[in-house]
Amino acid sequence: MRMFEQECGDSGIVAMGLPARIANDVWGSAPNDAVRDLAEDDNGSRIWYAALDHLEPPDRVAEAVSHGARGLVVEPFLSATPAHVDDVDVDPMYDAAQALGVPVLVMLGGEYGLDLTWCDPVRIERLAARFPQLDIVVVHAAWPLVQAMVGVAYRQPRIWLLPDVYFPGMPGQYDLVLAMRTFLHDRVIYGSGYPFCPQGEQLAAIAALDLPPTCQAAFLYSNAARLFGTPDAIPQRKEMP
User: Fold this and answer.
1) Which residues have CB under 8 Å from 149's CB, separation 6+?
2) 2-233, superfamily in CATH?
3) What is the pLDDT of residues 206-228, one digit of tens each?
4) Which residue, 1, 76, 147, 193, could crosslink 83 as a Cys pair with Cβ 3.0–4.6 Å?
5) Are 145 and 112 in contact (CB under 8 A)?
6) Single pTM value for the model
7) pLDDT in tens, 53-88
8) Tally of CB atoms within 10 A around 133
């Protein structure tokens, strides 16, 4: 973590979110307790997101929030009983998060699921319609189905996009940039997807997009601060070089 923090400091990153991941046979897991300990063992620049299996009792959401979780990671594909993100079996978890006002981070895109139907943005649209007060962060922004995902976010005002490792430099980049310059300026969030993207190179590529300063600041800092915590609760981000 110290080496990671040094890399963050060298790149001008002053705040970070650490996601947990349920035990699974597909990718590596990150237990809630371990991630929480990493978040608590610092000077206040880290927040953490709890991960729960959708088969667990929904009261586990309140338990995670009571331990400081700022969001809930929902990846039902990784469960021992896989489910789509809009499967009604996951609804109790979403309902608990909505009742507590806790954002959910839902992976959709990249290598998620058995095929691209698992990443269909329509699934997020159905979910948002069922839970209109729930803030939904779409991790990977449903890449490569970016244009459809942007269209769903246009229709549903509490959908946020976190393109992370697939932005910039991948197909769909210009759809995201145009959305960030217009109606999605306040709902797209920077994430490095570390360690898959070298942070310095990724930030340099973002700077080369020539986004308006207010748009760049919202993407790199204020949107996430507003969603996961108040701006004065997280150190102000330095200007990007």
Assistant:
1) 108, 109, 121, 124, 138, 141, 142, 161
2) Metal-dependent hydrolases (3.20.20.140)
3) 999 999 999 999 999 999 999 99
4) 76
5) no
6) 0.94
7) 999 999 999 999 999 999 999 999 999 999 999 999
8) 10
